[in-house]
Amino acid sequence: MANARIHGFSFLKHTVSLKSTKAFSRLYSKGTRRSGQLVTVTVAENRRKQSRLGIPCSVKLGKAHYRNRVRRRIKEAYRCEEERLRSGLDIMITPKQAAHDCDFAVLRRELVWAFGKLGCVLPRQSAGTAENRGAGAATGTDKQ
């Protein structure tokens, strides 16, 4: 967690910031990408325990306050889905012009779609796992 604070994403649990030009170039050339109407998501393995997230915003998106708002919304959508994603990935989410005036739910749904197409999502756990049984006992739904 301390490492995440150094790189600027203190609210993300398993992700640090992708900063270097070399890392962005490698990801752009070797990564797999999926494009939607709002964002383009590029992903590659990074051989680390943590994932790295980069959000390059072009001046084409508008003035600084528009670019910053788009970045914040993408970070929040990513944070909501972070637990479902595999670790050890370099992820670049490049917003398109339409991203700054769209609904947040639509943006999040498009990120989920792109992550699913790129194979970043962890498989779902079956209903018989110990975690699910523990949750049922805590809510009082187990039969006596």
Q: Radius of gyration over alpha carbons?
A: 17 Å
The level of helicity is: 40-55%
Structural class: alpha/beta
Describe the oligomeric state of these chains in a short phrase: single chain
Helices and strands, in order, run as: HEHEEEHEHH
Order the strands across the largest sheet as they lie in space.
Answer: 1-4-5-3-2
CATH topology: Ribosomal Protein S5, domain 2
**Shape call:** globular
Average predicted local confidence, pLDDT: 83
How many structural domains can be distinguished in the coordinates?
Answer: 1
Number of strands: 5
Based on the structure given, which CATH architecture is correct? 2-Layer Sandwich
Distance between the termini: 41 Å
Q: In this structure, how is the largest beta sheet organized?
A: 5 strands, mixed
Detail the poorly predicted runs.
1-6, 129-144
Q: Helix count?
A: 5
Share in β-strands: 15-25%
Under the CATH scheme, which class?
Alpha Beta
Structure characterization notes:
The protein is an alpha/beta fold and 144 residues long. It has one domain: Ribosomal Protein S5, domain 2. The chain has five helices and five strands, in the order αβαβββαβαα. Strands 1-4-5-3-2 form a five-stranded mixed beta sheet, with helices on both faces. Strand 4, helix 3 and strand 5 form a beta-alpha-beta unit. Helix 3 (64-81) packs across helix 4 (104-117). The longest helix has 18 residues, at 64-81. The protein is globular and about 35 Å long. 22% of the residues are buried. The model is unreliable at 1-6 and 129-144 (pLDDT under 50).
